[in-house]
Every structure is written in C-alpha cells, then in structure tokens.
Amino acid sequence: MAKESMKAREVKRARLAAKYAEKRKALKEAGDWEALDKLPKNACPCRQHNRCSITGRPKGYMREFGISRIQFREMASNGLIPGVKKASW
Predict the structure, then answer these.
(1) DSSP 46
(2) What is the DSSP letter of 68?
(3) Region 9-26: what's the mean pLDDT?
(4) CA–CA distance from 28 to each of 18, 22, 54, 68 (Å)?
(5) Angle, CA of 60, 53 and 17, to the nearest 5°
(6) Beta-strand (E) ranges in the chain?
(7) Which residues pair with 61 in a beta bridge?
C-alpha cells in the first residue's frame, strides 16, 4: 500500500493541472514559452502518474476501472464490479 503522502501528492498534482489547464492552453497557442516556464511544475499534466484509487499502487493500473490489477481481481471475484465475471471454459 502506498504512503498517504504519495496519494495526496497525486491528488494535488491533478488539482493543479485542472486549475491551470486553460491558461496553459492559451499560452501554448500564443507561443509564450517564458510565461509557460513561470507556471508551477506540477501544473503540467504529464507529471501525473496513474495510481490505484484504493491502495495507491502505481503499477498494474487499469484505466477503465481506475484500480490496480490486484484490486480488480479481488473485487471481480467478489462480484463487486458489475458486468465482470471470471472466465471459465
């Protein structure tokens, strides 16, 4: 399980990126690279990293569900994800 500080840092980055999205877009279109440099580093969406919403695990992330592969398997086995069931043939 990830440290709470790592989860909080990712939330903070996502919030900053959303806050500055319009401003970044306008500055890019204008070609004002110096003004872009003065924005906070974490305002860039490429600095975000996908993490499991339950455990905070950074690897094995499934975008469609927003959770890691381990949590996905556990929840699917327990029937907590609608429309997903274990394959058997």
Answers:
(1) G
(2) E
(3) 96
(4) 16, 10, 35, 34
(5) 100
(6) 61-62, 67-68
(7) 68
Neighbours of 52 (CB within 10 A): 23
Structure tokens at 64: 């469609």
Instruction: Please state the rounded mean pLDDT for residues 46-61.
Output: 93
Q: What HEC string does 65-77 produce?
A: CCEEHHHHHHHHH
CA–CA gap between residue 42 and residue 39 (Å, rounded):
9
The answer to whether the CB of 6 falls within 8 A of the CB of 48 is no
Whole-angstrom Cα distance, residue 39 to residue 74? 41
Q: Does 1 score more than 90 pLDDT? A: no
10, two tokens: 């990712």
State the pLDDT confidence band at 2, using cuts at 50, 70 and 90: confident
